[in-house]
Write a structure and sequence with these properties.
Blueprint (H helix, E strand, L loop, with lengths): L1 H4 L5 H27 L4 H32 L7
Helix pairs in contact: 2-3
Length: about 80
């Protein structure tokens, strides 16, 4: 399987996985904020939590995927 992925940048795969998890966990975090806060500003905080978790996990997936690519195939090597 690694031979099929050789030369590919796994940062894009990591970003996709990170964004998918971010959307799911961001929704859970937003619902938790709505349940806990229960004030007029709860919707604003829930929105902030949703976008914050989604962006953070997407960026983390991109960075980890890029580092995995470098670790597997070397930093200076390009796909043939």
């Amino acid at each position: 399987m690694l031979d099929q992925l050789r030369g590919r940048n796994l940062a894009h795969v990591g970003c996709t996985v990170g964004l998918t998890l971010g959307l799911l966990l961001g929704m859970v975090a937003a619902i938790a904020v709505l349940v806990v806060v229960q004030t007029d500003s709860a919707a604003g905080w829930a929105t902030l939590a949703f976008f914050g978790v989604t962006f953070a996990l997407g960026a983390l997936g991109y960075l980890l995927g890029g580092r995995t690519s470098e670790r597997l195939w070397g930093a200076g090597r390009r796909g043939d």
